[in-house]
Amino acid sequence: MSRGCLFVISAPSGAGKTTLLKKILADTPGISFSVSHTTRAPRPGERHGVDYRFIKRDDFLRLRDDGAFLEWAEVHGNFYGTSRLAVEQTLQQSEDVLLDIDVQGARQVREQNELSAVFLFIAPPSGAILEQRLRDRNSDKPQVIAQRLANAEREMAEAAWYDFLVVNDVLAEALALLRAIITAERCRRRRQPNGTPWPPYAP
Ligand code: 5GP
Q1: Residue 89: which CATH number?
Q2: Is 130's C-beta closer than 6 angstroms to any atom of ligand 1?
């Protein structure tokens, strides 16, 4: 059995990443979402254990100090972290794992070569469209939006080192590109058992 593939996806908030990922997860067999731990408060409609594991700051710091996180970061003033155990168990079951994490966390995953992760960056078509999307979302206060826009500029610069870049202008097109990337990655020869789907020929 081959090990699952680890997909790391980052995007500035408002790039449409959550919508895209929900669609991918709904109709792609063999891929699971890694539910992160966070110290931020749930937004309306978010559920504990589904969108995030909402935990207290002290609990987060304890888990972090115990080495429970594959990666962690402080984003927009809150802590976020990926459970090392949950990801490892899923990959061992030949199931692909999708991490929705920021660029700081993605860098930490990249340093762990043994994970052979694939890095995808989703970008909005322009800064102006990003700003409009954040305002339309209506879930954040103006100063939070301003902070997210400033962060977006820094995050966009990081897109340079990701393996794949998908610009989310038309949702259906971006979705098709993400599906194609996942499919292509699964077909990589080195990811097949013995490097080939066939039993090796005896010499
Ligand atoms: P939000 O609070 O809007 O759901 O997420 C804010 C940012 O935190 C997003 O860029 C999201 O990708 C990132 N994020 C979510 N979970 C994690 C995580 O476990 N680790 C890291 N490093 N970033 C995360």
Answers
A1: 3.40.50.300
A2: no
The CB of 75 under 6 Å from ligand 1? The reply is yes
- To the nearest 10 degrees (0 to 180), the angle between helices 127-137 and 142-158 is 140
Q: How many domains does the chain have?
A: 1
Verify whether ligand 1 is closer than 6 Å to residue 81 (CB atom). Answer: yes
**Is 96's pLDDT higher than 90?**
yes
Protein residue with least CA distance to atom 24, ligand 1: 101
141 versus 30: which is more confidently predicted?
A: 30
What digits encode the pLDDT tens for the residues 66-93? Answer: 999 999 999 889 999 999 999 999 999 9
**Residue 102 phi/psi, 5° resolution?**
-80, 175
What number of other Cβ atoms are within 10 A of residue 122's Cβ? 24
Is 159 within 8 Å of 119 (Cβ atoms)?
Answer: no
pLDDT beyond 70 at 182: yes
Is the predicted pLDDT of residue 202 greater than 70, yes or no? no
Q: What is the whole-number distance in angstroms between the Cα of residue 80 and the centre of ligand 1?
A: 6
Q: Residue 151 has what pLDDT?
A: 85
Strand partners, 79: 74
Residue 1 in any domain: the answer is no
Q: Is 96 in the pocket of ligand 1 (CB under 6 A)?
A: no
Residue among 133, 161, 147, 139 nearest 10 (CA):
161
Secondary structure element (H or E) that encloses residue 152, with its range: helix 142-158
